[in-house]
Amino acid sequence: MIRPTDTDFRVCQISFEQLLEIQLEAQERGWATRWSSVGALRGQVKEDAVVLQSLMREEREGAVRSYRCLALFSTADGDPSGGVATIDVDPSRFASLKRLDKDPSVSQTFAQLFALACGGISMISKA
Fold it and tell me: Which parts of 2-44 fold into alpha helices (H)?
């Protein structure tokens, strides 16, 4: 697991096209953590910006093979709620992504937001 204080904790905003490229790389490498196809991704993800957060690193023989990231996105079905899914990202691509979280307090805030998103967020009426 990657903690917000780890050097490879990262939150990045990427384009839909970048997500498609990441998906294609994951397909080519046979990684299991991805959409089943580009068509499936297009069917679930709105063509809009996506936010990635590093979650885990997969290491083989002492080197990072991939970063498992949470992807937070607007859904393609027009529902106002979003979706969260995991996708594996190549380390060189991961390192090239522009960070949104350069300050440690921002990293903590993003980690909390993603934890809430993964747990489910509901609109509630105030009593």
Answer: 16-29, 38-44
**Six-digit token string for 69:** 């990231």
Q: Which residue has the tokens 């390192």?
A: 95
Q: List, for residues 30-81, the tens digit of each pLDDT value.
A: 999 999 999 999 999 999 999 999 999 999 898 999 999 999 999 999 888 7
Q: How far apart are CA 114 and CA 11, in angstroms?
A: 10
* Closest by CA position to 10, among listed 58, 60, 71: 71
CB neighbours of 1 closer than 8 A, spacing ≥ 6? 55, 56
DSSP type of residue 8: T
Q: What is the pTM of this model?
A: 0.88
CA 20 to chain centre: 13
DSSP strands (E only) in 42-97: 50-60, 63-74, 82-89
Q: Any idea which residue has 């979280």 for tokens?
A: 101
Contact 87, 97 (CB under 8 A): no
Residue whose C-alpha is closest to residue 32's, from 1, 61, 56: 56
The 8-class DSSP code of residue 115 comes to H
